[in-house]
């Protein structure tokens, strides 16, 4: 048994690579740009450790469903208002991380950031650096060597807070074999799947000749007037000047001006394992689960004009973390079944569309301008006006406008 048995179920976390003491495994991008393990047979000793360290095996066999001994779901918004604007929804992650670093002087927090032209996980130990991890990045974040670094911190009794997709959290537990985790706290995000870093890199070519010219990429933006709406907005910051803002939205009136976002919103470009995700259910892998509160209409008197988050406390470690930080949130109990009805990754994974078979072949073969022509909406007077109306008008006026143009 070795890691190649996992095949397309591989989530690309790299637990196998770092578990192999013979350095026989490296993660390499496939044609689509997703990372998969390659084994050097001259170094492999057939010990099966890579297989046993894979979350897709370990999570099912060892971790299983034992972790969710409790489950407390809440609808939540941070009281630390300075963080709210930059976060995807209720600024839960950054508020908990802030209080975590404040309480434990030698602690580290791990999460996804954009730098050096790519999205990857980093470790931060200063409250002032937490802004780097804020905001959802809709792409597979590369974990680099954060698992072994976290292991070293835990060995030195340093508390660690890890945030990531559920498969990345499961990968960390699998890499650690669930040992020496007394000081480890994990937050898994509700995740409907990730496209490839290679496609994002190609897409960014539409805005800058070289990715290194881009200092930040943001995927969400709070509505300037109606804060209850957290817009799906791709903002590229070039050399510290906001230069491109392209709108894309979930509804049928979406202005899908960017091909990467347009295809992401349709779910055509996700990693193959995302279509058979082991973690798209209510048995959560992290101590705390965070996501957007999609059932907020059920709570009309709870912050009706702001985007709020779902928080699910899943374990005893989660309770401890929440008890120390809950005073920094406004929150009410949440009906998790009703949330799962509208927030799909809480009950099932994204269905693989037939277009998935050929889309990456096309993305590889054609220049990005041609992909844009095929899969993004054209920038016409009509789409620009619609985008403006969607973003700046109250919903009642938008509805009237939609009826008019139809
Ligand atoms: C690819 C993806 C798909 C998502 N799909 C859904 C969904 O279907 N339903 C839903 O309710 N919520 C989804 N989310 C989560 C949601 O967008 C917010 O991240 C969540 O509500 C937390 O918001 P916040 O304001 O508390 O955190 P923020 O302050 O915005 O912090 C974001 C947190 O997410 C982590 N993160 C950001 N990007 C990535 C990434 N690419 N990989 C791993 N970790 C990352 C950061 O490390 C940080 O911990 C998704 C997020 C991602 C990245």
UniProtKB/TrEMBL annotation:
Pfam families in UniProt: Fer4_7 (PF12838), FrhB_FdhB_C (PF04432)
Domain 4Fe-4S ferredoxin-type stretches: 2-30, 35-63
Keyword Cell division attached: no
The entry's keywords: Iron, Iron-sulfur, Metal-binding
Name of the protein: Coenzyme F420 hydrogenase/dehydrogenase, beta subunit C-terminal domain
Source organism of this protein record: Parabacteroides segnis
């Amino acid at each position: 048994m070795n890691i190649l048995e996992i095949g397309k179920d591989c989530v690309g976390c790299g637990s196998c690579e770092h578990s192999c003491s013979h350095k026989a495994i490296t993660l390499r991008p496939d044609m689509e740009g997703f990372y998969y393990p390659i084994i050097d047979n001259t170094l492999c000793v057939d010990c099966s450790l890579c297989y046993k360290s894979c979350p897709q095996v370990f999570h099912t066999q060892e971790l299983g469903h034992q972790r969710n001994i409790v489950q407390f779901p809440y609808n939540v918004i941070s009281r630390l208002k300075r963080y709210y604007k930059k976060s995807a929804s209720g600024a839960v992650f950054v508020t908990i991380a802030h209080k975590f670093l404040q309480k434990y002087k030698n602690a580290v927090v791990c999460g996804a950031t954009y730098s050096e032209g790519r999205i990857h996980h980093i470790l931060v130990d200063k409250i002032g650096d937490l802004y780097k991890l804020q905001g959802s990045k809709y792409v597979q974040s590369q974990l680099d060597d954060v698992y072994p670094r976290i292991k070293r911190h835990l060995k030195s009794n340093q508390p660690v807070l890890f945030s990531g997709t559920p498969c990345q959290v499961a990968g960390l537990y699998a890499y650690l074999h669930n040992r020496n985790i007394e000081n480890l706290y994990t937050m898994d995000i509700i995740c409907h799947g990730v496209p490839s870093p290679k496609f994002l890199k190609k897409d960014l070519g539409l805005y800058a000749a070289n990715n290194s010219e881009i200092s930040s990429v943001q995927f969400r933006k709070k509505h300037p007037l109606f804060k209850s709406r957290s817009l799906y907005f791709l903002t590229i910051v070039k050399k510290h000047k906001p230069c491109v803002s392209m709108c894309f939205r979930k509804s049928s009136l979406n202005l899908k001006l960017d091909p990467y976002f347009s295809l992401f919103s349709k779910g055509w470009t996700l990693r193959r394992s995302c279509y058979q995700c082991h973690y798209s259910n209510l048995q959560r892998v992290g101590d705390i689960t965070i996501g957007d509160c999609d059932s907020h209409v059920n709570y009309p008197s709870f912050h009706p004009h702001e985007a709020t988050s779902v928080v699910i406390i899943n374990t005893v470690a989660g309770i401890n973390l929440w008890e120390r930080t809950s005073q920094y949130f406004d929150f009410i109990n949440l009906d998790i079944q009703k949330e799962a009805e509208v927030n799909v990754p809480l009950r099932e994974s994204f269905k693989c569309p037939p277009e998935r078979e050929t889309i990456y072949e096309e993305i590889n073969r054609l220049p990005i301008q041609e992909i844009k022509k095929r899969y993004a909406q054209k920038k016409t007077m009509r789409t620009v006006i619609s985008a403006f109306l969607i973003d700046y008008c109250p919903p009642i006026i938008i509805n009237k406008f939609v009826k008019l143009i139809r």
